[in-house]
From TrEMBL:
Entry protein name: Porin
Signal peptide positions on this chain: 1-27
Gene3D superfamilies: Porin
Pfam families, A to Z: Porin_O_P
The keyword Transferase appears for this protein: no
Domain of life: Bacteria
Keywords: Signal
Length: 409
């Protein structure tokens, strides 16, 4: 947007000036006994962008940018209410994301930092410090995506589909501010686990304080079935020669004015608007699976969410949702199929309130990905079919086509 341009231009200028001054100062320092410690090297990494690193490896800065161009018709957003299916349609052609990412380590390779800025909306998304000296015990503090759902935790630049499913909106925790401990407990054979436990303000991105005395508590236990860690990424681009799979259980509890979260921060599901401080106690859990082997990838989530209205006689609503998603590089089966081409499909369903309403929402999508240079440069074409059953007498549906080019520099 035009009004945000001066902000991010000044921001970029300050960043580049800081980098130039810091490395200029390093180069002008007097020679010490170990001269190599005062020098820095520069190289380009496809996954992390430009890297500035001192030769003693005590300091590392990686600067990475990403642009996402999208065309969508008859509209871009997922339909949320019944009226969204019948309202005015607005085809979109836009820069959907424009990100600047900076990360690395300082003083020690295990003392890491990372921040991410959304240029198109002038939002600071992530800022975090990580202490990762031991595999079994790590720590981070700041604002970051909670690892509650695999679908949301996967970067928008490493997704398998154009974007996340219809259940992301009601169930994601998105970004929160707080602290987290995590690690990998690698035993013999099948005894291989990862864990995450976090405490957050529970008020979403951009809120530095809680609304009351209740914090958000989060836990995730992940079993690496075959003794191999499977990272948060879509598509089996590595073409795993050995199977890798995870089974994860996630749970969270929070009390706040909000019933959902997004990149914008705390928000409200339909029927819960304008919450008061501490009004909603939200308990939720999900069961997650993921698998990759020889070009085939699978992931799924099954969600439950309980919303308790503390200001209205503890009125309780139960929400349910799930998605299943799979992709395959058919070149592994048919040699005539292009190596760079993957086909993926997804089905998702959402019940906004199991007890009080017969409303059901559904999504079925198929997509082709063409990888010019892995996730760093890919083109995705996606077709989706949405259904909405308000009751047995009022079903409706909608088709949508989206084309997206995602490129990282």
């Amino acid at each position: 947007m035009h009004h945000s341009s001066p902000i991010w231009i000044r921001f970029l200028a300050c960043l580049l000036l800081t980098i130039l001054l810091s490395f200029s100062a390093t180069a002008q320092e007097p020679e010490e006994k170990n001269d190599t410690a005062a020098k820095a090297t520069v190289r380009y990494n496809r996954e992390k962008g430009f890297e500035f690193k001192t030769r003693d490896n005590k300091f590392l800065m990686q600067i990475h940018s990403r642009l996402q161009f999208r065309f969508a018709t008859p509209e871009d957003q997922d339909p949320v209410t019944f009226d969204d299916f019948t309202g005015e349609k607005k085809p979109a052609f836009k820069i959907n994301r424009a990100r600047l990412k900076v990360g690395g380590h300082a003083f020690q390779p295990w003392l890491k930092y990372y921040w991410e800025y959304e240029l198109s909306q002038s939002n600071l998304l992530n800022y975090q410090i990580m202490v990762e000296k031991w595999d079994w015990l790590k720590f981070q503090v700041g604002q970051f995506k909670v690892e509650y759902t695999r679908e949301r935790r996967i970067s928008s630049g490493e997704q398998q589909m154009v974007d996340r499913s219809v259940i992301n909106r009601p169930f994601t925790l998105d970004r929160q501010q707080g602290a987290e401990i995590y690690g990998r407990l690698k035993g013999k054979g099948l005894a291989d686990f990862n864990y995450w436990f976090g405490v957050f303000t529970g008020t979403g991105r951009g809120n530095t304080a809680n609304d009351d005395s209740h914090l958000m508590y989060f836990g995730r236990l992940q079993w690496n079935m075959f003794g191999r860690y499977l990272d948060f990424v879509g598509c089996d681009l590595e073409i795993h020669e050995k199977p890798a799979a995870v089974l994860a259980i996630n749970a969270v509890t929070n009390q706040s004015p909000y019933t959902r979260f997004s990149q914008a921060g705390g928000g409200y599901l339909e029927g819960y608007e304008d919450g008061q401080p501490g009004q909603y106690r939200v308990n939720q859990a999900n069961l997650e699976t993921a698998f990759m082997y020889r070009g085939f990838s699978w992931q799924s989530e099954f969600h439950w969410k309980e919303i308790i209205d503390k200001l209205n006689n503890d009125q309780t609503d139960d929400l349910h949702g799930y998605y299943v998603q799979a992709g395959y590089f058919f070149h592994q089966l048919w040699r005539w199929w292009p190596k760079q081409l993957e086909f993926a499909a997804r089905h998702a369903a959402y019940r906004p309130n199991v007890e009080a309403s017969e409303t059901k929402k559904g999504e079925t999508s198929g997509a082709f990905n063409w990888f010019f240079n892995g996730h760093a440069n890919k083109l995705t074409a996606e077709m989706s079919y949405f259904t909405y059953d308000l009751s047995v007498d009022q079903p409706t549906h909608e088709w949508r086509f989206r084309l997206q080019w995602d490129i990282s520099l």
